[in-house]
Write a structure and sequence with these properties.
The complex is a heterodimer.
Chain A (H helix, E strand, L loop, with lengths): L2 H21 L1 H20 L9 H30 L2 H7 L4 H30 L8 H25 L6 H28 L7 H29 L3
Helix pairs in contact in A: 1-5, 2-3, 2-5, 3-4, 3-5, 3-6, 3-7, 5-6, 5-8, 6-7, 6-8, 7-8
Chain B lengths: L12 H23 L13 H28 L2 H32 L8 H22 L4 H13 L1 H11 L15 H49 L1
Helix pairs in contact in B: 1-7, 2-3, 2-4, 2-5, 2-7, 3-4, 3-7, 4-5, 4-6
Classes of the chains: A mainly alpha, B mainly alpha.
C-alpha cells in the first residue's frame, strides 16, 4: 500500500463525505430510522427492563438498531455511484479497486459512527443505562463493530448494484456474515453498560475477538472487491 | 455440435455402481451402529452421534469445497469451479439441516432443552445460514449473482475454524473435539464406518448435482447456437 494508494482511498472517502455534507440525506434518514428502531424496542420492552436485564437489553437494542440502519447507509453510499453510472468512471479511473473499497469503507463507517453517537445517547436515556461508564472502551467497541459491519457490507452492496431486489437481499446476505461481529460487540457493550460489573476482562476478550474479525474481514474485502465489481 | 455424454450422468454404469457402493456402505454402517454397545448414561439417544457428527463434518466439507470452487471462479473464471461451488453449497444446506435437527434431539435428552445459545451451536447455525444465503444469492442476486455468491462463500469459509475451535475458545457445554478418541472400540468402528458412508453419499450426490449443472450449461450453449443459426437463416 503506497502513498498514492492511501491518497486515492482518502480522496474517495472525502468525495462521499462531501456529497453527504451537501445533501445530508443518509445522515438524516439513517438517524431518524435509528431513533425509530430504538423507540420501537423501547415500547416493546417497556415492562421488561429491570435492573438485571437493563444493560444487556440496552446493548442489544443499540447494536440491532446500528445493524438495521447501517444497511441504509451502505445501500445509499453505493447507490449514488449507480445513479449517474459513475461506478464505471470510478472503475476506469487510475484508483486501485482496493482503494475504492477502502474509501467506501471509511466513508460508510464514519457516517455510521456519527449516527451511533446519537443512538448511544438515546439508548442511555430510554433504557436508563449509564452508557458513558467507560467512554474510551465504548468508543473502541463502536469503532471495531462498525468497521466489521462495513467491511463486509461494502463488498455485498457493490455486488448488488445491478440487482432489482438489492434492498431486500442486502440484509438477507449480510446479516448471517456479521452476526459474529454483532455478538461480540453487544456482549462487550453490555459489560460496559453494567455498573455492577467492575471486571473489564470480558470486554478485553470480546474487543480482541472483534479486532481479529475486523482484520480478517477487511483483508478478505480488499481481496475480493475487485473480482466482485469487475463486471459492473 | 452434439452434446457430450457426461461420465457421471444419471443412469450411467459408473453412477449406478457408486449408488450401489453407497447403499452397501450404509447397510454395513447401520449394522455396526446397531451392534455398537449402548452408552451407559445416554442409552439409545447416544446413537444420534453416529448421524450427527458425519453430517456436521459434511457441512464443513461442503463449505470448504464451496469456497474452493468460488476462488477458482472468482479469480480464475472457472465455470466448473462455479458449478462445484453451487452443488457443494446446496449439499451443505441439506447436511446442515440434518445437523440442526439431530443436534437438538440429542440436546433435549442430554441438557433438557432443545437449544442452548453456546458457541458451537451458534457458529454451526451461522454457517448453515450463510450457505442458505449463498443459495438465495444465486437464485435472486440478479446479473452479478455468481460473483456475489462467490464472495459470500469466502466469508462463510471463515466460520469453519470458528465452528471447529469454538469449544476450545469459548466456555461451551458441547462435547469437545476429542470425543471420538474417547469412544470404546465397538463404538469407534461404527463411527468411522458411518463417517465413510456419509462421505461417499456426499461425493455421489455432488457428482450427480454437478452432472445436472453441466447438462444445464450445455443446454444453454446449444440454445445460443440454435438462436445464432436461426438468425443466420433469416
Amino acid at each position: 500500500m503506497t502513498a498514492s494508494w492511501w491518497r486515492y482511498t482518502f480522496l474517495i472517502a472525502f468525495k462521499d463525505l462531501r456529497i453527504e455534507g451537501r445533501s445530508r440525506e443518509v445522515l438524516y434518514t439513517m438517524g431518524f430510522s435509528a431513533a425509530l428502531v430504538v423507540l420501537v424496542f423501547s415500547f416493546a420492552l417497556a415492562n421488561a427492563t429491570d435492573a438485571a436485564q437493563g444493560p444487556v437489553t440496552a446493548a442489544g437494542v443499540l447494536w440491532a438498531a446500528t445493524l438495521f440502519t447501517g444497511t441504509v447507509a451502505l445501500a445509499r453510499v453505493l447507490d449514488r455511484e449507480r445513479e449517474n453510472e459513475s461506478i464505471r468512471s470510478l472503475l476506469l479511473s487510475p484508483a486501485p479497486r482496493s482503494a475504492i473499497y477502502a474509501g467506501k469503507l471509511i466513508a460508510t463507517s464514519l457516517l455510521m459512527i456519527a449516527v451511533e453517537v446519537l443512538l448511544t445517547i438515546l439508548v442511555g436515556v430510554l433504557f436508563s443505562t449509564g452508557v458513558f461508564n467507560h467512554l474510551g472502551w465504548l468508543a473502541l467497541v463502536l469503532l471495531l463493530g462498525t468497521l466489521g459491519f462495513s467491511a463486509t457490507g461494502v463488498v455485498f452492496s457493490a455486488a448488488l448494484l445491478r440487482s432489482r431486489s438489492r434492498e431486500a437481499l442486502l440484509g438477507a446476505l449480510l446479516f448471517p456474515i456479521v452476526i459474529p461481529v454483532l455478538l461480540a460487540a453487544s456482549r462487550a457493550t453490555a459489560c460496559l453498560f453494567d455498573p455492577l460489573s467492575p471486571d473489564l476482562e470480558p470486554v478485553s476478550f470480546w474487543t480482541r475477538f472483534l479486532f481479529a474479525t475486523d482484520v480478517i474481514y477487511i483483508l478478505l474485502g480488499l481481496w475480493v472487491f475487485e473480482p466482485v465489481v469487475i463486471g459492473e | 455440435m452434439p452434446a457430450q455424454t457426461s461420465q457421471t450422468s444419471h443412469g450411467s454404469p459408473r453412477f449406478l455402481a457408486a449408488c450401489a457402493v453407497t447403499f452397501l456402505l450404509f447397510v454395513i454402517a447401520c449394522n455396526a451402529i446397531a451392534d455398537a454397545p449402548r452408552e451407559i448414561t445416554m442409552g439409545l439417544v447416544q446413537k444420534i452421534f453416529y448421524f450427527h457428527v458425519p453430517c456436521a463434518w459434511l457441512l464443513m466439507l461442503s463449505t470448504l469445497v464451496c469456497a474452493g470452487g468460488s476462488v477458482a471462479y472468482l479469480f480464475g473464471g472457472s465455470e466448473r469451479g462455479d458449478r462445484v461451488a453451487l452443488s457443494a453449497a446446496e449439499l451443505g444446506v441439506l447436511f446442515g439441516m440434518c445437523v440442526l435437527v439431530s443436534g437438538p434431539l440429542w440436546a433435549k435428552a442430554a441438557w433438557g432443552v432443545y437449544w442452548q445459545w453456546e458457541a458451537r451451536l451458534t457458529s454451526s447455525l451461522l454457517l448453515w445460514l450463510m450457505l442458505l444465503a449463498y443459495v438465495l444469492a444465486r437464485r435472486y442476486g440478479g446479473p452479478s449473482a455468481r460473483r456475489l455468491a462467490a464472495a459470500l462463500a469466502l466469508f462463510a469459509a471463515i466460520d469453519i475454524p470458528l465452528v471447529y475451535f469454538s469449544v476450545r475458545f469459548f466456555r461451551s457445554i458441547h462435547p469437545s473435539n476429542t470425543v471420538v478418541s474417547t469412544l470404546g472400540p465397538g463404538m469407534r468402528g461404527a463411527f468411522w464406518l458411518s463417517l465413510l458412508a456419509f462421505t461417499v453419499l456426499w461425493s455421489v450426490l455432488l457428482a450427480a448435482r454437478l452432472a445436472v449443472e453441466s447438462a444445464q450449461a450445455r443446454l444453454v450453449d446449444l440454445e445460443i447456437l440454435l438462436d445464432q443459426a436461426e438468425e443466420k437463416k433469416t
